[in-house]
TrEMBL record:
Role: Flagellin is the subunit protein which polymerizes to form the filaments of bacterial flagella.
SUPFAM superfamilies per UniProt: Phase 1 flagellin
Keyword rRNA-binding: no
UniProt protein name: Flagellin
Keywords for this protein: Bacterial flagellum, Cell projection, Cilium, Flagellum, Secreted
Pfam families the record matches: Flagellin_C (PF00700), Flagellin_N (PF00669)
Similarity comment: Belongs to the bacterial flagellin family.
Domain (Flagellin C-terminal) ranges: 196-281
InterPro entries for this protein: Flagellin (IPR001492), Flagellin_C (IPR046358), Flagellin_N (IPR001029)
Superkingdom, natural source: Bacteria
Length: 281
């Protein structure tokens, strides 16, 4: 047909090669700019959706990890309160011992007031030892439930349930004393000994509760580290499926640009050869 342009075989081959190289350069440029070799399901559906699934689970576990961290903080608040209660009980015991050894009734009466003031602080400490609205040592203590993973199962234990322990003064068995009893001229020693015995029992209870909570906190810390490792593994696996090797892609880009330059030169030579032949006619 008149006006049609006919390309020689070599010219057509060079053009196709240049088009292919240009497409490869565009793809490599996309990978370098995005940092990914798979940007959509069109690039590699299997790798794309596998990577998304791994990242989704990593995200779910990150939420679980946040819950574990919150649980640890709840326990820390409770243990901190128990440590303060223990210090308070020790002060009360020291006051009781001082009163027991005192021969002055007025002094003993003053000491009884100090004793009762410290006792009231125990209840304040229990009520203030909360974190995010959860308190494991107050009167009517809360229960803390910490999930270990994003799944629910009727057969597997996927959570840790920590029952709070009422550590108020009354529950610990520490009673308020009267100035009349401690200030009496007789019988005050036996009365104070009874209070000291109650304090010793309360100290044991507080220490046992703190130890139990500490064990639970250690368990949660182990689970927290484990969850962190799993998240990193999932993210790493997801990245391996879709992330580009930037060093490799940079080398590819250089090679493709060189190929493109050579292809352009080759095409130019082919065109010149074709024109030289046409001049013969």
């Amino acid at each position: 047909m008149a006006g049609d342009i006919t390309l020689s075989t070599s010219t057509r081959s060079n053009l196709l090669s240049l088009q292919s190289t240009t497409n490869l350069i565009d793809r490599t440029q996309d990978r370098l700019s995005s940092g990914k070799k798979v940007n959509s399901a069109l690039d590699d559906a299997l790798s794309f959706f596998k990577s998304r699934s791994l990242n989704d689970r990593a995200s779910d576990l990150a939420t679980v990890k946040d819950g574990i961290s919150e649980g640890i903080n709840v326990i820390k608040a409770a243990v901190g309160g128990l440590e303060s209660i223990e210090s308070t009980l020790k002060q009360m015991k020291a006051i009781a011992s001082s009163a027991k050894s005192s021969t002055d009734s007025v002094t003993r009466q003053k000491l009884s007031s100090q004793y009762n003031e410290l006792r009231s602080q125990i209840d304040n400490l229990t009520e203030d030892s909360s974190y995010n609205g959860v308190n494991l040592i107050k009167s009517s203590a809360d229960t803390l439930t910490v999930k270990f993973n994003e799944q629910s199962s009727a057969t597997l234990k996927n959570e840790l349930v920590i029952n709070g322990v009422d550590s108020s003064a009354a529950t610990l068995g520490v009673s308020a004393v009267t100035s009349a009893t401690w200030g009496a001229t007789s019988g005050f020693v036996a009365s104070i000994d009874t209070e000291i015995s109650k304090i010793d029992s309360a100290l044991n209870s507080v220490r046992n509760t703190a130890q139990t909570l500490g064990t639970n906190s250690s368990m949660l810390s182990i689970r927290q580290d484990f969850t962190t490792n799993i998240i990193n593994t999932l993210k790493g696996g997801a990245g391996e499926l879709v992330n580009a090797d930037l060093n490799e892609e940079s080398a590819n880009m250089l090679a493709l640009q060189t190929r493109q330059s050579l292809g352009t030169i080759s095409l130019s030579i082919a065109q010149q050869s074709q024109q030289s032949v046409l001049r013969l006619f």
